Each structure stands twice: as structure tokens, then as C-alpha cells.
């Protein structure tokens, strides 16, 4: 087999463990010098490939790779960029450029670390390479806090975000319970997840199975939001306990599909805030309770100080497996997590076809949602629980995680500039 | 000396280490059975005293006290309640009731764990006891994440919230830097602190002294907000780095004292969001940058999984000292943290008069703010740095902190019900 270089790229929103996958890809690729020459990374994802903005990873020694594997965010930079359809003029122009860059840098292996959209790109790059007769093996590596990739039992990045949010609900719940008063106190936490309720469901782990423990209500997009049913439950919980804690997935919708948006005091609907603030104000205006709301936003997907050990292990495993799959010529595939058993939780890495699941979306099964649409079931908790297990000690300096500084070395350009 | 019971109460917003102070009070009081009989706690603070809603702490064994010392929130419940002025009819009625409850339960020592307002109550209770000839020693114990109590170098609760927020800015900064694009990305984090910028200033620890590292801008109430100066700096940072991270204290004001509120699309000012969302939207509308914003809300003061070891040590120390001061008859005083040295940081617990500092507010000194009002200085970082030092291992179960369940045993009532 010919020897060629490997290119790695982040894609889409980053996670607390995407760098773990990157470090595993680099480490595994280095173990095969007979097949893989240089290990390069794209700066800012696919945009960096187009711009021929590449990074030489040889400068990262073993200690630096270890540090990288513990650092949240995407060290090489990422982007949200939809590859235009291949059949269009713009699509051909973009595809031509990608292969010019691959050829200029002797890229024979491309590992694309992303979500559903990225799996589509993996499939299209495989097809384009075959049509062009260019020797490229293109492999996906799953990553998303949203846990919405089809074909894998779970997605690296989800477990750590889930652990962060369940811990946050547990802790904020202890706080608001302290402050619960006769006039009722409500706490709303808005979480990520796009069109799915996986991250919202994870907060239910804070309660174990205790119906009186936070979160008392979990709103997920899959359930459909009914204002009257919801407010009745908020009132019931608050009258019984003196407080009510609520997880709101950012993507919740009414049964007719309309989003929940901020209602201005004038009565018109104006999109002034996310679902969390809209829900908090709805409760205040309709029930008169005091409220607090939290939006962890990027904090929930960057919590390197509180990683799930299982999640990080899986992020490392898919990185290693992606390199093995590239060497095995499993073009257009991605490593997927397969659940083998519970108690103890056991898993392995399997192989899935990227094009087959591209742009699909894995939503919460009906069995994971309570029939009233206001909480998740024990089945949901049983599924998520093992994914947040285990802690990962982080080196610290001055009371903060010591993520270190990583010097990234650019690769000299060989092509004319790209005109985006 | 006569033997009598001790009553402990939380007051105001709780913290991640207020239970540490509570556990230290209980432990220290038990060490003096010759002077202190029962150790009781008020349920929901001073409202619990009025309602004669008291808790017997004898059921908490040593293991339970240790667990309590690691648990965020206020386990006995707290409240925000302003004691009416003593000279008013309502004030006399309330004060009469408090002393009826004290007498009914043979309370000779009262330890009130709160902020500036609570120190006022400590002084007033001391005065009232002396006027009534009731043998009560009343001691404050400082607590607030806002760090705004006068007379103490810092406040238990602040260090852990500061550590949480500095870590959050560090981690979210790594995330947004990954996603920085040509159109500019802005991240705004709104933090607590009431009228002071101590917590906002703490996020500057994330940057060390690196002017290019998050947070790029820190807005504190003490500086006065100037929209044009601020937006010019946001533009400058974003054009240089591709992204800009901003900490916004909840209490920021314009130089004329007006608050920063959400501006509706109609142009009128309507209070629809906090300072953080208002700032984020201002940037989007004026500069066109994409934005994300986070509101950690209760999460920042309940982060038991990521405590500052120094903060917890000080929370324990003021609890122990408050009991010693009660036994020494230092009526109307509170234990204060005194800074003895830097590198290594050294501190001790001194004694301050509660009435002398009651209702005052400790704000950021001018030397802690950069002259343009858009950041804090090295002096601010040097002051805060030792307060976030050290980590506290938490027992975990199933990937979450194991804060345990504490059975609280109510004290039988001896008085007629209180009519609030």
C-alpha cells in the first residue's frame, strides 16, 4: 500500500472531549509510519481545507498530546459550513478545491470529526474521490453534545455535557430548595440539544428516581409543549414543595410545531429570548411565582474540569478506531459505539456507513418520555446513567484547570489563495 | 457561667460553603457541653425563628456533619426577610416574638450566618437583649458570594463562586475560540455580585495576565458603563482576534446610574432581560456580530463539585470562631478574615463589631479597575487569586457528587402559632 499523509478536521460545534478524539487520531496515526506520513490538521475545519490553512501536528510531543486529550474546545478550530450540493457549479468548484488541497499535500486519509451533517460530507467526499480516481479514504468520527447521530448508541461529547447538566441541576436544586418560600420559587435551566431532548433528559439523573427531587419537570422537543398542562403541573409541584425546578430543552415546540418564544408585555410575540426565559416569564405572568433562570450555554459543552470518564474513553476510542478504519480502507464509514451490556456497562466500537445515516436525526424514543410529556422515564435514565460515569482528574494551577498552551505550527501553502 | 442552648440560622442567599460554616458551628458547640446544651437550627432563617420552626441537630452524627460540610445550598433553609425597624409597632411585635421563642427554647447563643443586612440584625438583637435583660449573646458569621461585607478581607462563599466563574470563562473561552469566524463571535457571561464587581473581577483570573485571553472585557458596576467606549473595544478585540469574551456583572449601570436593560425592537426600553442579554443584543444590533450568552445564575453559587479549598477552610473557620466568640461573650461581633501575607497566602480570623459595618457595602477599590472601566487590574487578580486555590475532593455516586440525604428532626413547638 502507498504511504500518504493524514488530515484531521473538527466540524461543527465543539465539545469537552473532541480534543481527546483529535489526540487519539494523531497518536494512532503516528503508530503507522509505514502507511501514514505526516499527520496534519485543518485550521477551522473544512474552511481551513479550502483556505489551505493546515497545521503540522508533529510539533506536539507525547506530553502535549496527553494535555490535548484533557482540554475542552477544539484546539484546531472548527466551523459550521454546509458543503454546497456537488451537482451545482459552486459545489463542483468547492469540491475541485478540496481535492487540489488534498493532492498538494499528498492527503490519502481524511478524518472528519463531526455530527450528522459531517457524515454526509464523508459520504460525498468518498464518492467524489472515486469519481475522480483520487486515492482518498474518508472516515467520519462521531462527535456532538446533542447525541443525535443515528447508528451509534451514543455520541462522544454527550456524556460530559450530560454529567455537567445533571450536576448543575442537582446543585442548583439544593440552592433553590434552601430559598423556597411561601410565594413559590421556580428555577428554569435551558439546555442545548437542538431538536432533541437527550441533554434535557440527562438532568433527570439528578433526581435518581425521587419524584420530589429536582428536576420536577423536563421539557423535551419530542413531547410537544402544552401550556395549560405544563402550568397545572408547575402549580401542583410548587404547592406541594414550595418550589419547582424545570429543565427546558432549547428546541421545545408546541404540538403544532410553533416555537416557544418570549412574549413581550405588549402582548405580541417577539423573539427576544430563548425557550428558557420564555418559560420562566410564562410561569411568572400566569402563576405569579418568583423565578430564576440559568442558561449554561457554552459552559455545558466545555466543562473540562468535570468530564465523564466514560465519555472521554469513548472519544479516545473513536479516534483510534477511525485511524484503523482508514488503514483498513473502510472508505465512507465511521466508528460507532455499541452497547453490549448494563451493570456493568460494556461497550465496543463498531463500523457504520456514513452516507446511510447522513443528515438523519436520532430523537428520544417514546419509551423515554412520560406519557404527559412533562418528564422522562426510568428507561431514559437507565440509558444515560452509564455515560456520565467516572471522573477525570485534571492538572490544576492556581485553582484553575491547567489546560496548558499548545504551539500550533502552520504548514507552508503550495496553492494560490482560495476565493470564497 | 450558665448553660443554655445555641441557635444557628442561615440568612439571605446561600452559597456552596454555607453548610460548611453550619457544620463547624455545630461541631464546635458540641465541644462545650458545659456551656452549650442543645444546638438548634432555624428552619428557613429568621422566619423559622418567628414561626418557632426549629431543628434539632443532635441527630446529625460526625459522618453526617462531614457530609454537610461538603454540600452546597443551605440545608436548614434560608430566607430574605427585613426585620422591621425596632421602634415601629410591627418591629416591637416581631422583636417580642423572637425573644419569646428564644426564651421558650432557652436560647442563650444565637449565630446568624449572613451578609451586610444580617450584621444589622446581629447588632439590633444584641441591643434588644440588653434592653430586655435577656441573657443572649448574638454573633454574626459572614457569608456571601458577593464579597461585599465591610470589615473582612473576603467573605466565605465568594472564593468558590469566583473559582466556578473563572473556570467557566476559561472553558467557554476555549470553546468560542474554536468557533471564532470571520463574521466575529461574541460571548457574554452575566455573573452575580449585586452592586459590586467582585465576582466579575474573578473571571479575569482565567486570562492570567494575557491581554489576548478571555475575558477580554470585564464590566463592573463600580466603573460606570459607557456604550460607545464599550462597543469600540468590542470591535477592536473582535477585529484583532475574531472573537470577544465579556463578563457582565448583573448590577452594571451607566454613569448616570441608570440600569442596562433590554431594548425592545420597537425602540423603547423595556426590562425584559438582565444586563447580560441586553449587552449581547446591543453588540449584535450595533456591530452585527454573532453572539452567545450564558447566565450561570444559581449554578455559580452552588458548585459543590468544584469548591475552592481556601474558601471552604475559611467557611469552617468562621463557624468555629463564631462559637468561640459566643462563649467569650463577644456580643454583637462577627469573625472576620484578615489577610496576613501573600505568596504564600496567610490569613487569620479576627473580630469585628457587627453594628459598625451593618448595611454598608464593600465595592471594588479604584486601583482594582482599569482606567477605561473595561477591565480589572493585576492588583484585583492578585487579591482574588489565593481565594480560589485548592480543590476539595467530593464523594461521587453514579457520576454525580454524592451529597447524601440528611434527616432533619423538628423541635416540638411550645408556643402559640405566629401570625405573620
What are the main properties of this structure?
elongated; six-stranded mixed β-sheet; 34% helix; alpha/beta; homodimer; Rossmann fold; four-stranded parallel β-sheet; 18% strand; 420 residues; 2 domains
Describe the structure.
The structure is a homodimer of 420-residue chains. The first copy, chain A, is of the alpha/beta class and 420 residues long. Chain A folds into 2 domains: 4-157 and 303-359 and 390-410, Rossmann fold, CATH 3.40.50.450; 159-301, Rossmann fold (3-Layer(aba) Sandwich). Chain A has helices at 18-30, 45-50, 62-68, 89-104, 116-132, 158-179, 198-202, 227-241, 275-287, 309-327, 354-357, 378-384, and strands spanning 4-10, 36-42, 54-56, 107-114, 137-142, 185-191, 217-219, 243-249, 290-294, 333-341, 346-353, 396-397, 400-401, 409-410. Chain A has a 6-stranded mixed beta sheet with strand order 5-4-1-2-3-14, with helices on both faces. A 4-stranded parallel beta sheet of chain A has the order 7-8-6-9, with helices on both faces. Chain A starts with a strand and ends in a 10-residue tail after the last strand. At the A-B interface, helix 6, strand 9 and strand 13 of A face helix 6, strand 9 and strand 13 of B.
